[in-house]
Amino acid sequence: MNVTAPNLKSLPYTREAVLTLFAPLAQRPWAMLLHSGFAEHPHNRFDILVAEPRTTLTTCGASTEIQQGETRSHSPEDPFVLLQQQLDALNLHPPLNGELPFQGER
Asked: In the chain, how many domains are there?
């Protein structure tokens, strides 16, 4: 799949919706749910579901393991530099969307 922008889906809100949507993904590798937790806040409507990443970076002490498919390597470089290198290699430059949180800075 060629992904060059976030995959955004607007869904009708129910308190249980995100848990129901996450259930089929929960057993997949690296499955995670960042849930707004039903907070009484104007920005509580955002949940993030992820699973099966293309690349993982796992840092322990001064060494970071980089795994892409079956290929593994290790690096002593700063893990945030390594992460930026991975993002740059994908050449992802989605436009900023003022309606969305968690977009980082450019």
From this structure: 2
Task: Tell me the per-residue pLDDT of 21-55, one tens digit each, with 9 for 90 and over.
Answer: 899 999 999 999 988 776 677 667 778 889 999 99
Q: Which H or E run contains 18?
A: helix 17-22
Range of the domain at 32: 14-52
pLDDT tens-place string over residues 84-94: 999 889 887 77
- DSSP-derived 3-state class of residue 58: strand
The answer to whether the beta carbons of residues 49 and 62 sit under 8 Å apart is: no
Count of CB atoms within 10 A of residue 37's CB? Answer: 9
Categorise residue 84: left if φ over 0, alpha if ψ from -120 to 50, beta otherwise: alpha
Residues 22 and 45 in one domain: yes
Q: For residues 25 and 41, state if they share a domain.
A: yes
Report the candidate in 82, 83, 76, 81 with the shortest Cα–Cα distance to residue 60.
Answer: 76
